[in-house]
Amino acid sequence: MVHSDGLIELPKLKRTAFYDDVLRPQNLAHGLIVNVVSRPEFRVSLNVERSEASGPFSERDAAVLRSLLPHLRRACELRLRMHDYQAAVQAERDALDALSTGIIIFDAGQRVLFANTAARSRAEELSLRLQEGAGLSGPPRMTNDILALLTDALRGGAAATRRLLRPNGGETGITVTPVKGRAFGHPSHHRTASPAAIALLVDISGSRDAGTALLAARHGLTAAETRAANVLAQTSGMDAAAAMLGISRNTVKSHAKRIYAKIGVRSQAELVREIAQISQTLDPSL
Fold first, then answer.
1. The three-state (H, E, C) secondary structure of 209-232, written as one string
2. What is the pLDDT of residues 207-252, one digit of tens each?
3. Which of 147, 149, 165, 171 is most buried, by the most CB atoms less than 10 A from its CB?
4. 31 strand-pairing partners
């Protein structure tokens, strides 16, 4: 805690441009300055000012501010932590939007909580409409098929897959699985309800990406771990995976260690087999 009078005496302060431009117009002459939060990238400081007529701050004034300081620091730290968490949540959503696999998250009432960019694109191809907080809408037969998959997944606790015919003649594979573990489960991710099921929409030709996404949903992989698993399934080693991901080999190894532990495998080869088995359910012709 610093008294402005301890930094510069008032007569000297009055001879500065800062006093003329800032302090004098506001009738300020004495200040009490305290650092509230310090981070490497920025600081939060509190300045308490008073007029020349009020005189310098006393030790009693400083004691009052000291008594408030712990509360101010807790309030600032809480706000900063919330900001950091919101940034992390947005980063996860951005990662999901970067996937080529369509991902739709439903609550227990079969309402849409989240749909990434790929899901909205796939839904348009199927003439389906996705609106957060509402149920699916579109061609009755297709909508009923998807809702039947959702019902089976929510009741039976197992994944189910179906092929959907697009108006242009192509096929989209949809896999619905209940959400397990903590994947997508933090309350702040979804304001209105808790996630209960996830649907994966993918062109049949892109079933490997869907297999990785389904594996991530089943075992609670983070967005970073999902990206790493997808790349590990396509490369021959840690160095190649690191190059594709643009991260260090040690970071890839750390991701792989957590991925293997969550899934219950011991090597990259076993991870590839797990993804291949899931991909086979999405496209039996593979």
1. HHHHHHHHHHHCCCHHHHHHHHHH
2. 566 677 778 877 888 888 888 888 888 777 888 888 888 899 999 9
3. 149
4. 49
Instruction: Tell me the CA distances in angstroms from 61 to 25, 31, 50, one per residue in order.
Output: 24, 11, 12
Closest by CA to 197, choosing from 91, 282, 89, 115, is 115
Tokens coding 259 = 């991925």
- Which residue type sits at 104? I
Query: What is the chain's length?
Result: 286
Pairing of strands 112-115, 160-165: unpaired
The single residue listed with the structure tokens 């991870």 is 271
> Residue 178: what are its φ and ψ, rounded to 5°?
-65, 150
| Helix or strand (DSSP H, E) at 268 | helix 268-282
| 128: its two tokens | 């389906």
Do the Cβ atoms of 154 and 107 come closer than 8 Å? no
Predicted confidence at residue 250, as pLDDT, reads 92
Instruction: Please answer whether residues 66 and 23 qualify as being in contact, where contact means their C-beta atoms are separated by less than 8 angstroms.
Output: no
CA separation (Å) from 253 to 77, 95, 217, 231? Answer: 33, 20, 21, 12
Q: CA–CA separation, 177 vs 213, rounded Å?
A: 11
Q: How far is CA 214 from the centre of its chain?
A: 18
Residue carrying structure tokens 């697009």: 166
d(CA 265, CA 57): 66
CA distance 140 to 273: 37
Cα-based distances in Å from 229 to 1, 136, 260 = 51, 30, 9
- pLDDT for 93: 72
